[in-house]
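--- STAGE predict ---
source: upstream dedup step, 1 unique chain passed
mode: sequence only
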Amino acid sequence: MGMQIPSVHDPGMAPPGKHAASAYAYAFPVEASRDQHGQLKKDMAQRVIDKITRLAPNFKDILIRHITFAPYHMQSMFAAPGGDFCHGLLHPDLMGPNRPGPKGFLDMPIPIDGLYLGGAGCHGGPGITFTPGYNAAYQVLDDQS
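--- STAGE serialize ---
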């Protein structure tokens, strides 16, 4: 699970004296049938809330509301294949140099001049880090000089 509290840096994201938080849990069974997603989504939300409450004991008591997204939400909102916002499993075999760079994989570059990869499935990801786009932009600049 990953958690961020962006209202620490931007208080306008929450009412005065309150915070907005996002927690990402990576263990939702995407292969489960769609009719199970409603209950699984509730179960996952409760597990995340319980886990955070173990570290921040008043978390459950101060929680105003929460929204939980299942894999099909991630797929429709962010075009994340199978709901995987990492666009490729977060697995050691698929990290670092084993993810494509701006010109594809090291041992299998894209055979099209002027095509650069900058999506979440590229090195610098996974997820929404903006690093793959940064890498692609600098590759474009390097190739033009």
